[in-house]
């Protein structure tokens, strides 16, 4: 009985954690690292989900279909960066308007071209039983994926040449350029990576959700909240932020229901921005310096 | 010279206005405002309502219009946004000067626009099933209400599956009031509410809710979820192997979840609805056929499509019998108590006291392969609750919404 309760609690925490990490990874790169406020982020997620569903229905195995979704979203992201976002790096307010416009065009365009809904693909893997409750195996896979995603991103940004150059480009673009880095290309690739991560989020959650043009919106609040609480650094910031928020959310939802889970999430953000304006990562880095 | 031209023009203008005024009511089109969500969270269920109205308008115009006057639709996309409803309701009533409005999906949107209809003394058809209780002379409701959907469904489910009920409902007026109805009926039938949970609109992750349901001793789950995001529940519940039968007044008949999700996620869902395209009567089949002829790509013809279509035909009958589009004349016809229409869902009649509609209620059951069968049909269920509770629009117009816990004041 004790084991069951502990497992149930960990499952709920893990489920909320996985959702926050997967939903915010793309935004952490584009908004957290690059500082671009991209209101079309939800539409990259929708793009990934739609491509995943379409390719899974066309017969591709689900993992490949999800990668396909991420890839297409990444490519779309690079095109958007090249055509729109690139020209607005130093005009944050204009980039809000431009990306919001893109978001409206994408949502309405998909609605007109593909209709108001798309058939889902069904959640694979079935369920496992622990005690008298059963749990979706796919959601356990999502929890594992969220950890793998964090490790993968850590290796990419801190252990590869691409990561070093990308961080240098974003922190000190002039210096990076002086050292011979093609900063324009790096911006494009980093933005593309963020979009691909958004597409990955859409792909991973596509089998568990309703496929509609507005589906990206349901990820937006959670991902912005996590990135704002976390601050600019994904690993020192977003990961612990996701853990803390997941705990708050899972606990409040368990005790008082979904509404209080959401309220708790938002109150946590207000408190954090009030007392830690640099987010968790700003605070942690400030202390270790 | 300039002044003379000006006077001439003015005279011509006055003459033309006068002539137009004289011709009015003879050949001028009857303008019908259509405010439905063609984008946003609810679009999947409501696009078809616009199409149903277009189909009815086409048929009416081809048959010579309403009383010889053609029908003209003034359509706006309300974007699943309550503020748009208020904006566009003002626009159709003030700027477009429509004769009648067909408006609204969610109960929140209806309550958002209803005061505006009252303010300008307009006439609005609400063609949606809802939580019931609107006693307002400016509103005609063709959708089914709780005494039609829950008084049939809940006792049937309790008899078949057991007395322990768990409700999950969308957290706004529709879900809250519907849940109240369920609670009341379960109580009356001697059952137990083992759980009740309200989910904010837009929530798409349900693992805690699913766990709560599994931990409870529920025999079946009443799902009153609304919108595309909340519909993710079914997939997630199925993948966690909840395996409990579900009962609902909104699923299948509205959002055709059995078509959108992979079987068997909606297995053993029971819904009371006054129409869905699977209903196997000649009238229903003919309706589906002509609908698909005009809109070949229509994903699903739901109860709201049938209700919108019926509402158009009821309005035609009301205007023709009243001899004008005047609201008092129309209400006088409703008060006669014999306004009926034999349409796709069978014969339906308007109740003069509440201006709601009687329905034949079909119990739709979703099979493992998501096919539909109908284990039970209740013929001619009256929308009796408002009238019994004391709402009588032929006598007075409180323009209020009542619930079992706040009924009309006894006087």
Tell me which CATH architecture of chain A applies here.
Answer: Orthogonal Bundle
Low-confidence stretches of chain B: 1-5, 7-24
Instruction: Give the rounded overall mean pLDDT of chain B.
Output: 87
* Share of helical residues of chain B: 40-55%
Give the strand order, joined by hyphens, for the main sheet of chain A: 1-2
Look at the helices and sheets of chain A and give the structural class: mainly alpha
Low-confidence stretches of chain A: none
Dominant shape of chain A: globular
The CATH superfamily of the largest domain in chain B turns out to be Response regulator
Structural class, from helix and strand content of chain B? alpha/beta
Q: State the order of secondary-structure elements of chain A, H for helix, E for strand.
A: HHHHEEHHHHHHHH
In the CATH hierarchy, the architecture of the largest domain in chain B is 3-Layer(aba) Sandwich
**What can be said about the biggest beta sheet of chain B?**
7 strands, mixed
Overview of this protein structure:
- The complex is a heterodimer of chains A (about 290) and B (about 400).
- By secondary structure, chain A is mostly helical.
- Chain A has twelve helices and two strands, in the order H-H-H-H-E-E-H-H-H-H-H-H-H-H.
- Chain A has a single domain, classed as ABC transporter involved in vitamin B12 uptake, BtuC (Orthogonal Bundle).
- The longest helix of chain A has about 30 residues, at about 1-35.
- Chain A is globular.
- Chain B has two domains: about 30-145 and about 280-360 and about 380-400, 3-Layer(aba) Sandwich (Rossmann fold); about 145-275, Response regulator (Rossmann fold).
- Helices cover about 40% and strands about 20% of the residues of chain B.
- Chain B has helices at about 1-25, 45-60, 80-95, 105-120, 145-160, 175-190, 205-215, 225-230, 230-240, 255-260, 280-295, 305-320, 325-335, 385-390; strands at about 30-35, 70-75, 100-105, 125, 135, 140, 165-170, 190-200, 220-225, 245-250, 270-275, 340-345, 345-350, 355, 360-365, 370-380, 400.
- In chain B, helix 10 (about 255-260) links the parallel strand 10 (about 245-250) and strand 11 (about 270-275).
- The N and C termini of chain B lie far apart (about 70 Å).
- Classes of the chains: A mainly alpha (about 290), B alpha/beta (about 400).
- Chains A and B meet through helix 1, helix 4, strand 2, helix 5 and helix 10 of A and helix 2, strand 8, helix 7 and helix 9 of B.
